[in-house]
Task: inverse folding
């Protein structure tokens, strides 16, 4: 038994009506909450507290074509003429926790076969 997730006009209209209803009711639902919760980060300090700190790569591979700085802070990406032979290990432990992962990404290519929809990582 196979199921298809065809995108139809009726499905789009139903989803749009549901989204519009949720947006319309959000002020009413927000009034039901209390102000004791932390909420989201809406200040510069709050956003900086939740974002990871940038750490530059040290001891990485040297590109064959270095970056070039341009006008107004523009910079080109470094280039490689061949795949590096000495790879840098950036993760020391097991990657991920296993389980099933689903993802959605925009694509303007033909839709892949149904058996290619999700993968299980071990």
Result:
């Amino acid at each position: 038994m196979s199921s298809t997730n065809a995108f139809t006009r009726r499905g789009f209209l139903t989803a749009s009506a549901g989204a519009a209803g949720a947006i319309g009711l959000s002020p009413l639902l927000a009034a039901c909450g209390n102000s004791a919760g932390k909420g989201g980060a809406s200040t510069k300090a709050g956003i900086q507290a939740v974002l990871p700190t940038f750490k530059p790569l040290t001891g990485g591979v040297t590109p064959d074509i270095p970056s070039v700085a341009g006008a107004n802070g523009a910079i080109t990406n470094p280039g490689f003429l061949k795949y590096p032979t000495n790879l840098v290990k950036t993760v020391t432990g097991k990657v991920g926790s296993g389980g099933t992962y689903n993802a959605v990404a925009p694509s303007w290519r033909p839709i892949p076969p149904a058996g290619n929809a999700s993968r299980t990582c071990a």
Observations:
- The two ends are 26 Å apart (CA to CA).
- The first strand starts at residue 99 and ends at 101.
- Residues 9-30 form the longest helix (22 residues).
